[in-house]
Amino acid sequence: MHQYLFFIGHFPIRAYGLILSLSIILATGTAYFLAKQDGRWHHHVVDMGIYCGIAGLVGARLWDVFFFDWGYYHNHLLEIPFVWQGGMAIQGGVILGAVVGYLYTKRHKIDTWAFADIVAAPAIIMGQALGRMANLMNGDAFGHPTGGNFGILYPSTTLAHQVYGNQPLWPAEVWEGQIDVVIFVLLLMFRTTNHAKGQVFILYFILYSTSRFFLEFLRGDSGTMLFGLKSAQLTGLTEITIGIILFIWCGYHQRKSVAAKR
User: Fold this and answer.
1) CA distance 117 to 203
2) Among 34, 37, 151, 188, which residue's beta carbon has the most beta carbons within 10 A?
3) Stretch among 65-69, 94-98, 148-152, 228-232 having the lowest mean pLDDT
4) SS3 for 223?
5) Cβ–Cβ under 8 Å, residues 208 and 176
6) pLDDT at 85
7) What does the entry list as the binding residues for a 1,2-diacyl-sn-glycero-3-phospho-(1'-sn-glycerol) (predicted)?
8) Cα separation, 38 vs 193, whole angstroms
9) pLDDT digit string (tens) for 44-103?
10) Exposed, middle or buried: residue 262 (CB in 10 Å: 0-12, 13-18, 19+)?
11) CA angle at residue 231 from 174 to 95, to 5 degrees?
């Protein structure tokens, strides 16, 4: 892995920033393809990709700063914008990105839930899968020591090495990226069913939050907060609970609407 791909003079081109940018571009491209295939709203995708992409970066950074690493950053406020050091919480990025996407759809009179099902959910999880490659190259979002002679050995310049040295670590970010690809395929498959409006997007939240909950047991870059669970796990449990309730409600609401039309 290489944190720095090359230098332009003294300015470093970081793998983290380049791959993260590519993940946003390719997620937007995926969204455009899906919207074009559906025949609706594809001309809005690029604009929304820019707005939601920026919102996602801001939300991911602020979520990490205030919920995961405030113990450090409250004494280093000037380092909050230093995203190249690592520290981007996907959950915060998705939440703020979803808020901005909701506001955009309302302003342009787009069916929010339908757009989220057709475009947003599959594209977001694909972007997340690619984004985990950035974490691997940067040496953050790493696992804790495996306790054996297997695992990832990070270079001395990475945060993972600063925390655990030469110990082999669980490939938490690699496995999360692979699981994200599986979730992407599952969402595409679920889109072909007779689902209720909103259920694809909600299923994305449930599946990702579930996978993240269990992967957090392998993560070595964040501490516990309550009942022995990490902040990402507590957030995930909340999202899973709300997601299941909304998933059932959407199905009930559709069945009720169909029955009323008969």
Assistant:
1) 10
2) 34
3) 65-69
4) coil
5) no
6) 63
7) 132
8) 15
9) 999 998 998 899 888 888 887 887 777 778 787 787 777 666 667 777 888 898 899 999
10) exposed
11) 75
Helix, strand, coil content of the chain in percent (nearest 5): 70, 5, 25
- Identify the residue with better confidence: 118 or 12: 118
Note every long-range contact of 179-185, with CB atoms under 8 Å and residues 24 or more positions apart, other chains counting.
179/211, 179/215, 180/125, 180/126, 180/128, 180/129, 180/132, 180/208, 180/211, 181/126, 181/129, 183/125, 183/207, 183/208, 183/211, 184/122, 184/125, 184/126, 184/129
Task: Considering only CA atoms, give the Rg of the chain.
Answer: 19
Phi and psi based region of residue 220 (left: phi greater than 0; alpha: psi -120 to 50; beta: remaining): alpha
- Here the tokens at position 64 are 């990490």
Q: Which two tokens stand for residue 171?
A: 């490939």
Judged by DSSP in three states, 4 sits in: strand
Euclidean distance between the first and the last CA atom of the chain, given in angstroms as a whole number: 60
| CA dist., res. 16 & res. 4, Å (int) | 8
> Binding site annotation covers 132?
yes
- Is the four-CA dihedral 148, 154, 156, 161 of positive or negative sign? negative
Residue 174, amino acid = V
Of residues 15 and 247, more confidence is placed in 247
